[in-house]
Amino acid sequence: MTGSPERDASLLARLWIYQGERFPLIQTVPLLGAFSAASVTASARLAGRPLPDIATYLAAFLIVMVFFWQMRALDEVKDAEIDRRYRPERPIPRGLVSLRLILWLAALAAIPAAAAAYAMSPGVLILVIIAWAWLALMGVEFFVPAFLKKSPALYLISHMAIMPLIDLVLTGCEWVPAGSVPDGIWTFLLMSFCNGCVVEFGRKIWAPEQEREGVETYSSSWGIPRSLTALAAMTGLAFLSLVICGFYLDRPLLTTLCGLVFLLPFLFVLADFWKTPDSSRQKRLETLSGVWVLACYLIAAFTPVLGGQS
């Protein structure tokens, strides 16, 4: 098909447009950079070890970028029919790029990720393969798509389990070569699961005027009060995980206070959206969800520095 300047552009130009709409690097790179750096740092802090060299941080960043890119590609597969019918403005249904191309790029990205993991340690590569196996099961909806579709809660739990697995890889970039798992690492992994749910709720709790035919959200499936209650519960559990992590870091009070600095504004925005669920408050809720998650990782990683731990 010709006549469209967008479709007639070069492949690189079309991929650049695609990333801007579906995998915006201007947002993704700093967020995943902070996530991976915090995970590596927290692992070392929990174990009382010196921070690893820059190569470890770069490897963790590359690996997490590949994981999230591959999750985006699998989402394109799962959403293909819904996008074709109800969201034709998205890049793939409008013909900007093909689904096949995106899947090939996601598959090729596994090569540098596997190489970076192996360079850290064969054990890190094993962790990566375990996470990939779960990601593959997610891609086929665990072979029970109809069953999962009937239960948004079970769907959420099964898919968000990838987050602690990814974080196990990222922390593993530090603890696998060091030869021992840090005490309290479970608090960090639990926080990753809860915060994965927080981000997912933040993305898929919509104001009534934003709901679209054929597009499932938690607000349309559960209603706004119930979905916001679930969001508040996951945020509270993430905060509890952060506080317990603070005990393992010997900085419980400082960790708690830093967490409250971000938790209280987030809960205020949540309550405000509950009272008046409009599009502007929806956007603030989504934004504060991301801010909260990022803050959790940075607090867990760097509170020991603020508290004077070497």
Short description:
The chain has 310 residues and is an all-alpha fold. Helix content is 78%, strand content 0%.
Radius of gyration: 20 Å
Mean pLDDT: 94
Number of helices: 16
Contiguous uncertain segments of 5+ residues: none
What is the number of strand segments? Answer: 0
Distance between the termini: 61 Å
Strand content: under 5%
Topology as H/E string?
HHHHHHHHHHHHHHHH
Main β-sheet: number of strands, strand sense, barrel status? Answer: none
Helix content: over 70%
* Helical/strand content category: mainly alpha
Shape designation: globular
Q: Can you tell me about this structure?
A:
The chain has 310 residues and is mainly alpha-helical. Helix content is 78%, strand content 0%. The chain contains 16 helices and no strands. Helix 4 (54-78) packs antiparallel against helix 6 and helix 14 packs parallel to helix 16 (279-306). The radius of gyration is 20 Å and the shape is globular. It starts with a helix and ends with a helix.
What is the fold's blueprint, element by element?
Blueprint: H1 5-8, H2 11-22, H3 25-47, H4 54-78, H5 80-86, H6 99-108, H7 110-120, H8 122-139, H9 145-149, H10 152-160, H11 162-178, H12 185-204, H13 218-222, H14 224-248, H15 252-275, H16 279-306
Helix pairs in contact: 3-4, 3-11, 3-16, 4-6, 4-7, 4-8, 4-11, 7-8, 8-11, 11-12, 12-14, 12-16, 14-15, 14-16, 15-16
